[in-house]
Amino acid sequence: MTDDTLARYRESIDNIDAALVFMLAERFKITQAVGAYKATEGLPPADPGREERQIERLRRLAADANLDPEFSEKFLRFIIDEVIRHHEKLQGKD
């Protein structure tokens, strides 16, 4: 592999990382709005049933994409836990 080849691979990885950051930022903007709505409506910060459905859905998507479902579940669990923490903060439960 030449240095040019490695540089192209790394540039692609950098572009993907940037896209992931912007996608996560957008996702958190939306989940912040959900958290504000839940706080206003007196809804609990967490929804275990939805979380379970989302994890199962992501595991299926991961399998279809040839991505390790265990990794995808850990990744989503990390995001869900952070969202719940934000929702609890909005409700003064931090």
From TrEMBL:
Pfam families with a match to the protein in the record: CM_2
Reading the lineage from the top rank, the first entry is Bacteria
Q: Which InterPro entries match?
A: Chorismate_II_sf, Chorismate_mutase-related, CM_bact, CM_dom_sf, CM_II_prokaryot
Tell me where in this chain the Chorismate mutase domain is found.
Answer: 1-91
Gene Ontology MF terms: chorismate mutase activity
PANTHER family linked: CHORISMATE MUTASE (PTHR38041:SF1)
The name under which this protein is listed is chorismate mutase
